[in-house]
Amino acid sequence: MIRDDRNADFGEVDEIASLGRRAGLLNRRSFLAGSAAGFGALGLAGCGTSDGVILAEAAKVYGPMPNEKFPIPAVDISKVDPKYYRRTVRYESKEAPGTIIVDPGKFYVYRIEGDGSATRYGANVGRDGFLWSGDAYVGRKSEWATWTPPKEMIRRQPEAAKYARGMPGGLDNPLGARTLHLYRNGAYTLYTIYASSEPESIGTGITSGCVGLLSQDMIHLYARTPVKTKVVVLPA
């Protein structure tokens, strides 16, 4: 586990892919780690909306973000099942508006909007053996955070030792553009909701307990989520 309380995160979120999937490449894509418009206004739940319209709007929402500190490229939306595109949905909940609900069984993250609706994002979640559930809260937020691999990961995968003192923020960094750090009872859980640049990972269980959204979705959620926001992780 990562021990740098200032900028570290649950290191296994990065182990999930890179050091095993692409030998010698310690980059963001192998680690796996927007627009403010939702799809609800388009009526995507209705039968009158064509696939062409859905894809055209998705291309806008998941387009490039050139004004970021590290410009973010467009998402290859052909690698994302359309059911995981950001949209506004009906979602009854007793939780207060702003609450984040993670449903790992369905690979969705919801932000409660009130009046029986929520913004829904597609996500990647923990793989078998690394799923967890319960209440937490956003203890801190970070943009383009430094990532530090835990000692346990370095022992398993010595090539990660290159970043023992931290990998600076950037497109290759597994935490991505934005990170919500989850806490319980004043203590950092080492779990995060983070930005992923791996569109093919959405809708899969591949992390060690962290939750990844597409970068454009994560930036959208991050901007609307203050510190102390409640996070509910449902059983898978």
From TrEMBL:
<dbReference type="InterPro" id="IPR006311">
    <property type="entry name" value="TAT_signal"/>
</dbReference>
<keyword id="KW-0573">Peptidoglycan synthesis</keyword>
<feature type="domain" description="L,D-TPase catalytic">
    <location>
        <begin position="98"/>
        <end position="234"/>
    </location>
</feature>
<dbReference type="InterPro" id="IPR038063">
    <property type="entry name" value="Transpep_catalytic_dom"/>
</dbReference>
<dbReference type="GO" id="GO:0005576">
    <property type="term" value="C:extracellular region"/>
</dbReference>
<keyword id="KW-0808">Transferase</keyword>
<dbReference type="GO" id="GO:0016757">
    <property type="term" value="F:glycosyltransferase activity"/>
</dbReference>
<keyword id="KW-0961">Cell wall biogenesis/degradation</keyword>
<dbReference type="Pfam" id="PF03734">
    <property type="entry name" value="YkuD"/>
</dbReference>
<dbReference type="InterPro" id="IPR005490">
    <property type="entry name" value="LD_TPept_cat_dom"/>
</dbReference>
<dbReference type="GO" id="GO:0071555">
    <property type="term" value="P:cell wall organization"/>
</dbReference>
<keyword id="KW-0133">Cell shape</keyword>
<keyword id="KW-0328">Glycosyltransferase</keyword>
<protein>
    <recommendedName>
        <fullName>L,D-TPase catalytic domain-containing protein</fullName>
    </recommendedName>
</protein>
<keyword id="KW-0378">Hydrolase</keyword>
<dbReference type="InterPro" id="IPR050979">
    <property type="entry name" value="LD-transpeptidase"/>
</dbReference>
<dbReference type="GO" id="GO:0071972">
    <property type="term" value="F:peptidoglycan L,D-transpeptidase activity"/>
</dbReference>
<comment type="pathway">
    <text>Cell wall biogenesis; peptidoglycan biosynthesis.</text>
</comment>
<dbReference type="GO" id="GO:0008360">
    <property type="term" value="P:regulation of cell shape"/>
</dbReference>
<dbReference type="GO" id="GO:0018104">
    <property type="term" value="P:peptidoglycan-protein cross-linking"/>
</dbReference>
<comment type="similarity">
    <text>Belongs to the YkuD family.</text>
</comment>
